Structures are given as C-alpha cells and as structure tokens.
Automatic annotation (TrEMBL):
UniProt keyword list: DNA integration, DNA recombination, DNA-binding
Entries under InterPro entries matching the protein: CB, DNA_brk_join_enz, Integrase-like_cat_sf, Integrase_catalytic, Integrase_DNA-bd_sf, Integrase_DNA_bind_dom, Integrase_recombinase_N, Phage_int_M
Residues of the Tyr recombinase domain: 221-405
Protein name listed in UniProt: Integrase
Organism of this sequence: Thalassovita taeanensis
Pfam families named among the record's database cross-references: Arm-DNA-bind_3, Phage_int_M, Phage_integrase
C-alpha cells in the first residue's frame, strides 16, 4: 500500500526552505495525494500536483505560494483529481477555457473601438490630410451615433439599414461612401477575430435587396464648365488680371491640370529647358508620375513670374505657403461677377469653376479636333486601358501631346486659325 505523505499545517509549510543544494526541490504537503510545494534556489515557491492522466505522468501547476494558500492548493488539487477521475485532462480544460475567454473578449469589441483600431492603419494610406479628415468625419457624424456602442459581433443588416436610411435618399453620394467605410471597419473586425459571418454592410447580394440603387436616386453633378465659344473671352479676362492666384488659374487652363497639382507645383518639378513639368506620383490622384508638356506660351508665363523669396512654390500664397483651393475659386467668381451673364455652364446654368476647365478641354478635343481619345485622357492624367494594356504601353505620348496642348493654347487665345 503506497505511503501517504504527512499532512503539513500552514505554519509548517511556511517554514519550509530550499536546502541550498541543486535545482528545484519539492516537498509533499499531504492532504491530497501528489500535492507538492516546489521551491527554487532563489526561494520562489509554487504548487504542483503530481498525477497520472491516461498513460502519462504529469505535473500540473496550481499557482504560486503564498498567493495561493495551502487550503486553496488542496481544493484545486481535489478538483483536478475529480476531473481526471471523470476522464477530463485538467490542463487541456484550462487551455480551452482561456481560449474561450480570449475569444469572448475579442468579440466584445464595440464599433467605435473597432473603427479607431482600423483607422490607425487605414489613415496612413492617405498622403492628403483632407482625405484623412473626410474618412473619420463621415463615420463620426453618421455611423457612431447609431453603431458606436454596439458590439461588432451583434451588428446586423437591420442596424446598417437604420444607420444609412436617414441620408440614403438626401445625401446619396455621402451615404454610399459611408456604407463602404462601415463595410471596411466590419471586414477588419471579422479578420481580427472580433466577429464572424457575412459582412452586414456589403452591398451586392445584401443591402442592394432593401435599399434603392444610388444611381436611381441621384444623378452625378458635374463641375460647371465654360462653354467652348466663351473660352477665349474668359481666357482674355484672366490674362488681364494680376496676382499669383490669377496666374495659377491661367496656367491651369493652359495645361488642363487639377487645381491641387497646380497649387502644389514647386520649381524643382519644372524643366524649362526641356519644357516639361514632371509631377511626382505622391502628388497625383492615380499615384503615378505624370509629365506635362509645356508650350512656348506656358514657359513664357513661368519665366515671367516673380519668385517669392523663401518659397519653393511656383504659385505661392502671399506668405509663401501653398495657395488654397478657395483662392482659385475666388478668381473665377470675380471674373464671373464682372460679366454675370457670361461664363455659365451650358447644362446647369451655374457659373464655371476651376475644375470645369478640364471638361472644356475634353469637349474641345472631342468636338473640335481629330486628336485621339487616349491622348486627351492621358493629358488629363486619367487611367487609360486595362491593367494589361497599361503594362505594355510604357510611353505617355508626351511629344505628341505637346502639339495638342499648343493647339489648345491657340484655341484659348482665339488664334487657332492664324
């Protein structure tokens, strides 16, 4: 018959010490078969249960001493032996419980916390601070009031519908972007293990069954553009005005570039000898470098500019920084105010805006010239062709586009027949 260990008291356990020789040492404390106090050479102490589980002998940790008292260690040892008797491995049972706890904690993430954790990485993709603010602002304004405190694991299609419906018909474009951003947050929560199942914010095969299609609710509102027949008159009015913002607007019209590309232009991007403006990829909407051929008149405009000391910008603001988008818009408004019956969009009747100049250029190419469509699209820095086509077409037609931009310049000045 196996010899039973003497049942030590709490005081006797407290007095136990390592012998000072060798590594870890164990002492049977009795009360439960196999219950040991393990002592390290540096006087660390913990409880172990020596037992047999199936065909294997195991030492199961029961916690550290004195955080776990002798009485508590005996209770834990009895519970473990009862589980073994029932055919349950206490170690595997403990692991499963810990995994369930971690899963429950992950699934307990609220939408506002999920949004913050998702945005930590997502917002780094944007170079433009305006885009970063727009992403957050849309979610803060429209999603957080209804979804913010809900657990991502509990959000379903009805919750998304309830969030989108107030703005779906009245602010359709904003609502459509909001849906996509909610979908992105929910997708992150699923991949990160905080929820499971289908994404309730998915459009196709999901929300499209209960919400009207955005295209059926609101037509795209285009930027008001100059009528082609008024382009020369408008351009003459621009040339008759002073200021960096006005010169930026004149330059923008001549090269058919975007406002941000012109306002952010720095002298290091300009090669006046080769008459080429190279815009780096990080400043382009399509994130690809874009070369703009400069005509003689465009180069002359640049050479005539007074360079502002301490500023790298071609068209600086009064204090040397980058011009604001509002500065160019203000120029357009002043020109229209001087002739309120002119420079109106043909379809909407609204006053033309800077971005609309690109539409006027595109209409001119299509209706008044024989230049290829792709050449015009490349000039506007639009993505042309499929991914495979772009992989094989490495050129950007910069020299061919030079002739097209020269012809456009003649059209703006009203000298195309000279």
């Amino acid at each position: 018959m196996p010899r039973k260990a003497k049942e030590l008291s709490a005081v006797e356990v407290k007095r136990l010490e390592h012998s000072g020789k060798g590594g870890n040492q164990t002492v049977a404390v009795g009360g439960v078969d196999g219950l040991l106090l393990q002592m390290t050479p540096v006087n660390g102490r913990s409880w172990l249960l020596r037992c047999k589980i199936g065909d294997k002998r195991r030492h199961i940790g029961l916690g550290g001493y004195p955080d776990v008292t002798l009485a508590q260690a005996r209770d834990r040892a009895r519970d473990a032996r009862e589980m073994i008797w029932q055919g349950i491995d206490p170690v595997e049972h403990r692991k499963a419980n810990r995994a369930a706890l971690v899963t429950a904690q992950r699934r307990g993430l609220s939408f506002d916390d999920a949004m913050e954790r998702y945005l930590e990485g997502k917002l780094q993709e944007f170079d433009n601070d305006k885009h970063r603010k727009q992403w957050r602002a849309t979610l803060d304004k429209y999603a957080i009031p209804t979804l913010g405190k809900m657990l991502v694991a509990d959000i379903d299609v009805s919750d998304i519908k309830r969030t989108l419906e107030p703005v779906w018909a009245t602010k359709t474009e904003t609502a459509s972007r909001l849906r996509g951003r909610i979908e992105a947050v929910m997708a992150w929560a699923t991949v990160a293990g905080h929820r499971s199942g289908d994404n309730p914010a998915r459009w196709k095969g999901n929300l499209d069954a209960i919400l009207p299609k955005p295209s059926k609710l609101a037509k795209v509102v285009h930027h008001p553009a100059l009528r082609m027949d008024e382009a020369a008159s408008w351009f003459s009015d621009v040339q008759g005005r002073e200021g960096f913002a006005t010169r930026a607007l004149e330059f923008m019209a001549m090269v058919a570039a975007r406002s941000g590309e012109v306002r952010g232009a720095v002298w290091s991007e300009m090669d006046l000898d080769k008459a080429v403006w190279t815009i780096p990829s990080e400043r382009m909407k399509a994130r690809a470098e874009h070369r703009v051929p400069l005509t003689k008149e465009t180069v002359d405009l640049l050479k005539a500019l007074d360079r502002l000391a301490g500023s790298e910008f071609v068209f600086p603001a009064p204090r040397g920084g980058e011009l604001s988008d509002a500065a160019l818009s203000a120029c357009m408004k002043r020109i229209h105010a001087a002739k309120p019956d002119k420079y109106l969009d043909r379809q909407s009747g609204r006053p033309a805006v800077p971005h609309g100049l690109r539409s006027t250029f595109r209409d001119w190419v299509a209706e008044r010239t024989e230049y290829p469509r792709d050449m015009a699209e490349i000039a506007l820095a639009h993505t042309v062709g499929s991914e495979v086509e772009r992989a094989y077409r490495r050129g950007d037609m910069v020299e061919k586009r030079r002739a097209m931009m020269a012809a456009w310049g003649h059209f703006l000045r009203g000298t195309q027949d000279e």
